[in-house]
Amino acid sequence: MEESYNELKRRLAELTDLDAITGLLGWDQQTMMPPGGAAVRAEQIATVTRLGHERFTSDEIGRLLDALAGDEAGLPPDSDEACLIRVTRRDWEKARRVPTELAAELAHAAASGYAAWLQARATSDFAGFLPALEQN
């Protein structure tokens, strides 16, 4: 169990790093990024989201979860290990239902929509924001 569990934790730590990068890109977009960078930033956020989704929904994560299933049953249900395996399995099964390209597209639409909202708010042109809102 220890080897599979440690490998799962290593992979989840990598995914946490990718999520943190996405958060940093979003924070920068909202606080410091010049308005002309919105299109490129949306692409960057979509790329990091796609990479994270691909890695999380990989067959290897499923194999690790399968390898840990028998050991999980022998652990106390409220132990850190059992909880990590259980929550990861639930999230992995849910994420596998979302195509990777859709996850990236949703992230791109959200980042682009934020830039469109800022412009619409500044000019009181909310009709101009409608296409971004519809895409989201």
Please specify the SSE layout and strand pairing:
Elements: H1 2-31, H2 38-56, H3 59-73, H4 80-95, H5 100-123, H6 126-135
Overview of this protein structure:
With 136 residues, the chain is an all-alpha fold. Helix content is 84%, strand content 0%. The protein has 6 helices and no strands. The chain is elongated and about 60 Å long. The mean pLDDT is 95.
Please tag this protein with its features.
136 residues, mainly alpha, 84% helix
Strand content: under 5%
Tally of DSSP β-strands: 0
**Which class do the helix and strand fractions yield?**
mainly alpha
Number of helices: 6
Percentage of residues assigned to helices: over 70%
Regions with pLDDT < 50 over 5+ consecutive residues?
A: none
Shape: elongated
Run of helices and strands: HHHHHH
The largest sheet is: none
Distance between the termini: 42 Å
Q: Tell me, rounded to a whole number, the average pLDDT.
A: 95
Radius of gyration: 19 Å
